[in-house]
Design goal:
Helix 1 packs antiparallel against helix 3, helix 4 crosses helix 6 and helix 5 packs across helix 6 (126-138). This protein is mainly alpha-helical. The chain is elongated. The protein has one domain (3-138). The longest helix has 41 residues, at 3-43. The chain has 6 helices and no strands.
């Protein structure tokens, strides 16, 4: 396996962690939009009896709700995409014949651990982890057209 193929395989595996990062950003966005909507509520209190210009303030709540619903829909879509990529990556890892290589690849590309963390968890020297990683990558049977 040449360097270019190795890098392509690693990039293919990294898709899940990238998907998780996008999911977390969308979760933060949703939380931000909910917090913004909570700030709109107290602004609407004076509307009860009067208010020239109240209609403008009243429009803020429906807009806030629309933004929350849009963020929730985007997050739901991302969760589905994230799960699909995770299953695909995990299936490729599960097909690797060596159990230590499978564990290493799962820790790295599903759990997001660093090589140092993996070495500690698997009680191996970090150099050995790199060697096992390269071997595990070479045993992946993946199709890049997906």
């Amino acid at each position: 396996m040449d360097k270019q193929e190795y890098q392509a395989r690693v990039a293919w595996l990294r898709r899940y962690r990238e998907s998780v990062r996008k999911q977390r950003l969308l979760e933060e966005l949703l939380a931000q939009r909910r917090a913004e909507a909570e700030r709109v509520g107290p602004l609407l209190q004076p509307l009860a009896g009067t208010a020239p210009g109240g209609a403008c303030e009243a429009d803020r709540l429906p807009r806030a709700v629309e933004r929350i619903l849009a963020a929730e829909a985007e997050l739901k879509e991302q969760l589905g995409a994230c799960e699909a990529v995770r299953r695909e990556v995990q299936a490729a890892i599960d097909a690797v014949p060596d159990s230590r290589q499978r564990e290493l690849l799962t820790r790295r590309y599903i759990m997001g651990q660093t090589f140092g963390q993996i070495a500690g968890e698997m009680q191996l020297h970090e150099r050995w982890v790199y060697k096992l990683h390269r071997e595990g990558i070479s045993h992946l049977a993946i199709h890049f057209g997906q």
